Amino acid sequence: MVLQFRPQGIYCPAGDFYIDPWKPVERALISHGHADHSRWGMQRYLATEAATPVIKHRLGDINIETIKYAEQRQIGGAKVSFHPAGHVPGSAQIRIEVAGEVWVASGDYKTVDDGLSEPFEPVPCHAFITESTFGLPVFKWDRQEDVIASLNAWWQANKDAGRFSVIGAYALGKAQRILANVDTSIGPILTHGAIENTNEVLRAQGVALPPTIRVTKDTNVKDHAGALVIATPSGMGGPWMRKFGQASTAFASGWMAMRGVRRRRSADRGFIMSDHADWEGLNTAIKATGAERIFVTHGYTTQFTRWLTEQGYDAAIVETEFEGESLDAPEQELAE
Amino acid sequence: MNRFAQLFTTLDQTTKTNAKVAALSDYFASAPDTDKLWTIALLSGRRPKRGVTTTLLREWAAEKAGIPLWLFEECYPIVGDLSETIALVLPPATGTSDKTLTQWLEVVRDIGQHDVETKKQIILSAWDSLPPIERFLFNKLITGGLRIGVSQKLMTRALARATQIEESTLAHRLMGDWTPDKTTFHDLILSENPEADASKPYPFYLAYQLEDLDALGPAADWRAEWKWDGIRGQLVIRTGQHFLWSRGEELITDRFPEFATLPDFVPDGTVFDGEILAWDHATDTPQSFNALQPRIGRKTVPKKLLKDAPAVLYAYDLLENDGQDLRDTSYDARRAKLETMIAALPKDAPIRLSATVPFADWPALAQLRETSRDRHAEGFMLKRGASPYLSGRKKGDWWKWKVDPLMIDAVMIYAQAGSGRRANLFTDFTFAVWNGNELVPFTKAYSGLTDTEFRKITAWVRKNTLQKFGPVRQVTPEHVFEIAFEGIQKSTRHKSGVALRFPRMSRWRHDKPLAEANTLDDLKEMLETYG
Which of B60, B218, B302, B311 has the highest count of CB atoms within 10 angstroms of its CB? Predict the structure, then answer.
């Protein structure tokens, strides 16, 4: 096996390294900066140039090397390269080749171009490790331009009614995806501190984001009437929200595809927007790899694996500690 | 159906009552009369008969979506709603439709007459001509379960705003046995013609659970009655016929043939409000709710059941007398008329007067309430002597003063995801008590925790699943919950030997170690004492 599934994480014996390990190990290759994929305590880290600043910001003083997309690097008996996963800026699928056999660990990915992250590229391989966060046929994302258009319309309508528009989005990825695509001519944009921290890191590495205003305890929000406010999902429920009075609230998440979840979050609007692949995306991505063996990690693993098996793949479930997109678990965010 | 879909979207996108009422009243002010009538029907729980089985709908949806049926069935519990699951898996529509809500409802109403192949063609072409929200709503109409977060009360308020008719008048007009096929918007809502429907009941007055006894004021202003657990019912006697209505506005006359003799003794123009109870004629006391239970779902009653669990109406209010609506008169005045009327009935008539319980002051009543469980009563109903009969659930004049629930500390051992608003969240749990070193399951409960607690426990369940049995997860025994319940009964169906009434989680006992949960012996002792 080019890769093995161990209690510490996904392991490559030929190169003696782990991919996105959840326990402290000697050497870790990191697919992207979300907390369930890049953790504390590794002796050495390797990540793409674009993913590294956020990882360093989160983990502090770590021993990290960078790699360019598609650059080949020999680690022990394994030939390693990183390829865009389209999930968040800098996110990568990790390709490992040992004695002519190619495996790809895709981390989290999506196949649509979000106008922010490096677009997903299919990587031909023999074995493909895929997530299945939204691995059911009820998940089908609308076109991004349609989602953004309804988001703009919502913001404009609230602004006209003299209300704030507060939207809950992940601090890394979703928040910037909204920023990069929303119609900034509508009004000013305020951000939660955890989101603004990520913005600063990304701006410093050259990611183009529109101007934003950090909300601090001294911010007089009345100076920015009708603003779009980007909050973390956990900030949405808390005392932080009181500043904005009778605001209209929304969440941006793949889970918003389900009415039950939308109602439970009791936000006024749910925008279906995910940084993970939908049903179609997962199936297309898997097909494009040409792989025969598929390992299914976090998400609807049981159902998706059975489906893949019926489609003729040699598919199996792999238990990991990855979490995918979650609205219900307490979110791990960048420290303020 | 576009206008209705817009209404639905607006209602679904807000949690604010005022916004909902505004959207509905706009709709009532502008939609065509037939659509309005159907909307009122749907929002008051009236719907066309189901003409296609959900089994067929599932098969056709899976086939159209190009997925195996098992995968569709896996999606359903996760989405938590069949109509939505179908709408989500289907490929985008290729056509369009300009049918109105009424026209679609005619399709739904008539589809039952066709053979299976024609039904399939009708359904598939509907799916292929409707955008996502309309498609979801069409599925709701065809499966007969449109619940869109609008209570009948809210709808009535909006209708009152749009028509400038008094809300309580409208509430009354909306009662009874009407369907959009048998009436019009004008006849039902706008015309003042009380004779239109002899069966029409009055809106029920519903009581809240008492919060603060001290706030009630002098005991002399209040009347107390024992509260028995039965089926709330309104018995209407007009034009020589009798009609029995449940609180859910279901006509249940045929299920209780005992009352058929009443028009012989009770004059026309009489309406009683009371509790339907299974009666023990030997002791002249109510039987337990368990005795009544088998009669609830049955449309026809076997002789044995009629003999074992004969029903009476335990009458506590008189809403109409000599054809006069008494609701604006005081409780005491209505009560006096009720007593006179019942006293004049033959002794074997299936009506009993709900006795008032005399009491000198609140402490005396509180003391008496402590004996509720021994009497198999649920506690007291308190009613203000001067109060009119209001409609709907209103605070102030009627209160339920139930005895405190029974409690037991139990260990969570299985978890299952909820549906609808709770889809994808673990909310349905099975609880166990200790029997030596073994945990014996004895009840399920799915309410009582806050959304935050449910989110917390969901995250925990995901990480602490020992085994999956379909949708059910066996979890590490670790968390202790206080289970509150109203009653306990012997049961042969459960391994524990007991069945609880209205179990719910009253508290998450973070403070209680696993070993200190209650035991099966504790449960059996409760059964001994209260069963």
Answer: B311
Query: Does one domain contain both B347 and B410?
Result: no
Minimum distance, in Å, between the CA of residue B29 and any CA atom of chain A: 23
Residues B416 and B365 grouped into a single domain: no
Q: Is B424 in CB contact (< 8 Å) with chain A?
A: yes
A117 lies in which domain range?
4-138+275-332
Note whether residue B182 is domain-resident. Answer: no
Q: Which residues of B touch A309 (CB under 8 A)?
A: none
> Using only C-alpha atoms, what is the Rg of chain A?
20
* Contact yes or no for B79 and A263 at CB 8 A: no
CATH number, position B497: 2.40.50.140
Nearest to B78 by CA among B88, B90, B63: B88
- Span B171-180, average pLDDT: 84
User: Is residue B338 located within the same domain as residue B433?
Assistant: no
Q: Is B89 on the interface with A (CB under 8 A)?
A: yes
Domain count, chain B: 3
Q: Give, in order, the Cα–Cα distances in Å from B115 to each of A144, B54, B110, B185.
A: 42, 15, 11, 33
What is the pLDDT, as a whole number, of residue B194? 54
- Kindly report the nearest CA distance between residue A137 and chain B, in angstroms: 6
Chain B contact set for A262 (CB, 8 A)? 12
Q: Is the pLDDT of residue B46 over 50?
A: yes
Q: Which domain holds residue B495?
A: 406-530
**Given an 8 Å threshold on Cβ–Cβ distance, is B88 in contact with A138?**
yes
pTM, to two decimals: 0.81
**Residue B84: count of CB within 10 angstroms of its CB:** 24
Q: Which of B85, B423, B459 sits opposite A330 (nearest CB)?
A: B459
Q: Is residue B341 a contact partner of residue B321, using CB atoms and an 8 Å limit?
A: yes
Q: List, for residues A19-68, the tens digit of each pLDDT value.
A: 999 999 999 999 999 999 999 999 999 999 999 999 999 999 999 999 99
Q: Is B52 contained in some domain?
A: yes
Q: How many domains does chain A have?
A: 2
Q: What is the pLDDT of residue B92?
A: 94
Residue with more model confidence, A126 or B465: A126
Residue B181 lies in a domain: no
Please tell me the distance from the alpha carbon of residue A104 to that of residue B43, in angstroms, as a whole number: 53
* Cβ distance of B88 and A306 shorter than 8 Å: no
B256 in the same domain as B116 = no
Residue A333 has pLDDT above 50, yes or no: no
A108 and A46, same domain (yes or no) = yes
pLDDT band at B247 (very low <50, low <70, confident <90, very high): confident
* C-alpha distance from B17 to closest chain A C-alpha (Å): 13
Regarding whether B427 and B393 lie in a shared domain, the answer is no
Whether B234 is covered by a domain: the verdict is yes
Dist CA B13 CA A259 (whole Å): 10
Per residue in B254-276, pLDDT (tens digit) is 889 999 999 999 999 999 999 99
- Tell me the C-alpha distance between B431 and A63, whole Å: 49
Task: Write out the two tokens for B464.
Answer: 């602490």
Binary contact (A260, B74; C-beta < 8 A): no
Backbone φ/ψ region at A299: left (φ over 0), alpha (ψ -120 to 50), beta = left
CB of A143 within 8 Å of a chain B CB? The answer is no
Model confidence at B106: pLDDT above 70:
yes
Are B410 and B394 in contact by the 8 Å Cβ rule? The answer is no
**Mean per-residue pLDDT, A131-148:** 96
The yes-or-no verdict on residue A335 having pLDDT over 50 is no
